[in-house]
Amino acid sequence: MKIVVLTGAGISAESGLRTFRDGDGLWESHRVEDVATPGAFRRDPALVHRFYNMRRADARAARPNAAHLALADLGRNPAHDLTLVTQNVDDLHERAGSPKVLHMHGALDGALCAACGHRWPAPLRMQATDPCPACNRPATRPDIVWFGEMPHHLDRIIAAIAAADLFCAIGTSGQVYPAAGFAACARDHDVPTLELNLTDSANAPDFSRRLTGPATRLVPDWVASLG
To answer: Is 153 a catalytic residue?
Structure first.
């Protein structure tokens, strides 16, 4: 069976990573959107780096949970062809053992030069004045897709959804596009859709089947049901 799984912040919340959209949406009295845009980086790169340094430290301290481990098992199952897509910027899927993960919003463990586009592994703490290893310019930023930027791997994701036998979203808010439109895309291609979430997402009507509850319970049960 060809399966496309999209994961969101809800799957990592049970590993202790904060879900800003489900809280007050604030960090140090700043809206998250104000520390996650190219304009914010131009205005106050030190503030943006402080935010992502904190998130990077939190992610490295977190551990994969039962939902991450179940998806890793699914990815290794020769009876299924899994395309695992995540909106998350942590590496919990990889540390759980998932062999291939499409990070559509980038990753905390990556650094990007805003001047020349070179990428390299991020240290635990970064600052804008860190020189790029390729061009030596002080233009270091997190390798994160910010609001207003184009997510990664979209062509590959859409093609996988169109060819899938099942599309499943886990722990997503259904508020952030283009990911929030993936279920509708699957429906347009007559692909069955399943939502596993703590509560119904904003785009819940786009799913043909929905199960509510914690990801650490729902995902292992669902993966076991696939055989």
So the answer is: no
Q: Is 12 annotated as a binding residue?
A: yes
Closest CA relative to residue 82, chosen from 194, 6, 181: 6
Find out if CATH 3.30.1600.10 is the number for domain 18-61+107-144. Answer: yes
Determine if residue 65 is labeled as part of a ligand binding site.
no
Would the pTM of this model clear 0.85, i.e. be above it? yes
Residue 116 among known ligand-binding residues: yes
Find the catalytic residue in 105, 118, 152, 153: 105
Query: CA-CA distance, 151 to 127, in Å (whole number)?
Result: 23
Report whether 117 belongs to an annotated binding site.
no
Question: Per-residue pLDDT tens for 144-157?
Answer: 999 889 999 999 99
Superfamily of domain 1-17+64-105+151-227: TPP-binding domain (3.40.50.1220)
d(CA 197, CA 71): 15
- Percent of the chain past pLDDT 70, that is, above it, reads 96
Place of tokens 């996650």: 36
Domain boundaries, the chain: 1-17+64-105+151-227, 18-61+107-144
